[in-house]
Write a structure and sequence with these properties.
Layout: H1 3-25, H2 33-108, H3 114-134, E1 137-140, E2 152-159, E3 168-173, E4 175-178, E5 181-184, E6 186-192
Parallel strand pairs: 2-6
Antiparallel strand pairs: 1-4, 3-6, 4-5
Length: 207
């Protein structure tokens, strides 16, 4: 190969290399616009996601604030209801107290009439009973009923041939209910089987 042919070959190789370099460096699409559009699309999606996250966070804060307000209102309503209930019951008891004071004063007078004092006491008791009924307070007087350990407290057991064992023979002190809630158990005397019946003095607490 002559010197001239060798120079022409080297020039051709250099031109091809430059052409390949230019082709590899050229961005895809016209003017490289494809990559810019993708970046803009991703930026838009990011901004939308951030806006949605901020909206959800603000909504959560509003819900939490509303729940806290509801809780405070409920506590306030319960407290007011409790105070109002006590106030009404106290108002009912004032009349009972007035009646008791009148009875005590009358009993201290010279020549007090016992019959009138008894009538006054019965009137006062009825007033108290009516006040308790208004607030759903009920007396427990289980005479003749089966002994119930959840509502009664056995003070003693007596033999009885006329009653089944664990029957309430006598109420020593009445019990009271507030609605379905036990305020005080009734103190009672219950029956037991006659001697030789096998139960002795024990009361069936599971009755």
């Amino acid at each position: 190969m002559t010197e001239e042919e060798r120079n022409e070959s080297q020039a051709s190789t250099s031109a091809e290399a430059v052409s390949e370099t230019d082709a590899g460096a050229r961005p895809e699409g016209e003017g490289g616009g494809g990559s810019t559009d993708e970046v803009e699309a991703l930026r838009t999606q990011l901004e939308e996601a951030q806006a949605k996250a901020e909206e959800n966070w603000n909504q959560l804060l509003r819900v939490r604030a509303e729940m806290e307000n509801v809780r405070r209102r409920a506590e306030r309503d319960v407290e007011q209801a409790r105070r109002y209930g006590v106030e009404k019951f106290a108002g009912e008891l004032l009349a009972v107290r007035d009646s008791l004071e009148m009875g005590v004063n009358a009993a201290q007078e010279e020549g007090a009439d016992v019959e009138k004092l008894r009538e006054g006491s019965e009137l006062t008791l009825r007033m108290l009973q009516q006040a308790m009924e208004k607030f759903d307070i009920q007396a427990l007087d289980p005479t003749g009923e089966k002994f119930d350990p959840s509502r009664h407290e056995a003070m003693a057991a007596q033999e009885s041939a006329e009653h089944e064992p664990n029957t309430v023979l006598q109420v020593v002190q009445k019990g009271y209910l507030l609605g379905d809630r036990l305020l005080r158990p009734a103190m009672v005397i219950v029956s037991r089987a006659a001697s030789g019946g096998g139960q002795g003095d024990q009361v069936d607490e599971q009755a």
